[in-house]
Amino acid sequence: MLHLASQSPRRRELLAQLGLDFGLLDVDVPERRAPGESPADYVSRVAREKAGAGLLRVMANPGAVVLGADTEVVLDDRVFGKPADAADAAGMLRALSGRRHEVISTVWLVSAGRELHASNRTLVTVERLSDAQIAAYVASGECFGKAGAYAIQGRFAAHVPRLEGSHSGVMGLPLHETATLLRAFGLLD
User: Fold this and answer.
1) Chain segment 101-148, per-residue pLDDT in tens
2) What does residue 108 show for φ and ψ, rounded to 5 degrees?
3) Has this prediction a pTM greater than 0.85?
4) Record's HAMAP family (predicted)?
């Protein structure tokens, strides 16, 4: 059986789009970038640690497969995780304003005897945002709990004139890459 090692409602919704039944695992993995660790390596490591932590919880179930994923916003080698508060969110949005940044999303599938992973990189261009636009967006609350302090599937999409890559990857689970991994595990046709 497939298990999703995430409590993200977006990941649950996206995985459900593939038409699979899956269980949910709540895992607690520290999300801290190691000194000298590249953004891509960091995202992959965290996704793998989530999958591994989930697998430890279901090891008694033969055939259990766990999906772990991580998505981060990267600008000039700086990783923008989830904002700590409104000031942090506003600072992230100011940094992204009028710039193109990268969103890296990595998925790991692990079982007792196998593991595979895939990554997706998407370029997102954000229009220049006024202080009033940033304040209004932060006040909406949509920025919280989201890497880079924005939700591409929400009202922030109105500020994104160009996206080059995977919309679902920016949301938190690149569906093409995920489906490819699930097929390799024999879990999807």
Assistant:
1) 999 999 999 999 999 999 999 999 999 999 999 999 999 999 999 999
2) -120, 135
3) yes
4) Maf
Query: 70 catalytic, yes or no?
Result: yes
Tokens of 162: 């160009």
Cβ contact 104:60 at 8 Å: no
C-beta atoms surrounding 37 within 10 Å: 14
Q: Give the pLDDT confidence score for residue 161 in this predicted structure.
A: 98
Domain annotation for the chain: domains and CATH numbers:
2-184 (3.90.950.10)
Q: What single-letter amino acid sits at 79? A: V
Output the CA–CA distances (angstroms, integers) from residue 56 to 2, 35, 116, in the order listed: 14, 27, 17
Residue 1, C-beta contacts closer than 8 angstroms, at least 6 positions apart = 21, 22, 23, 61, 63, 64, 65
Residue with tokens 């920016």: 170
Record the tokens describing residue 110, joined without a space.
């692990």
Instruction: Tell me the two tokens of residue 135.
Output: 């304040």
What is the rounded CA–CA span in Å between residue 18 and residue 16?
5
As a whole number of Å, the CA-based R_g of the chain is 17
Q: Which of 21, 28, 70, 131 is catalytic?
A: 70
Is the pLDDT at 62 greater than 90? The verdict is no
């695992």: which residue's tokens?
25
